[in-house]
Write the C-alpha cells for this entry.
Amino acid sequence: MTSTSASTLTVLVYSDDVTTRESVMMALGSRVHPDLPQLRYVEVATEPVVIQQMDSGSIDLAILDGEATPAGGIGIAKQLKDEIHNCPPIVVLTGRPNDMWLATWSRAEAAVSHPLDPIQLAETVTRLLRSSELATG
C-alpha cells in the first residue's frame, strides 16, 4: 500500500460527472470491508489532475469513468499503466457490459459497467485492495 497511514487507503475517483463520483463513493462507503482500512477519497474531474495524483505515489487504487469527457477513463488507464512503474490497481467504469474488452485493452485490473451495482463495485474493490495489500504488506 502506498498510503501515508496504515489506517487508511486512498482511492482516486475520476469522472467529469459529480453524480458518478458520488455514486462510487456512496457505494463503497468509508470502509469497503471490515478487514481493510478505512477509505479516503480523492475526487478528480480532469485528466491532468488524475496524472498528477497518480504520479504522487499516494494513491492505492483508482476508479476511472470510461464515459468521462473529454478524456475517458479507459484511455487514461492505458496511459497510466504504460507510464507509471508499479501503477496501483485500476477499475474502469464502462458504458455497458459489452465494453469490457476495452478495459482489458487498457490493462486495468477490473471493470464494472454502468449503471453501477454497489455490491459488484464493492466486491471488485475489496478483491483488488486485498491483492495489493498482500503484494506490498
Residues 1-5 have pLDDT under 50 and may be disordered. The two ends are 7 Å apart (CA to CA).
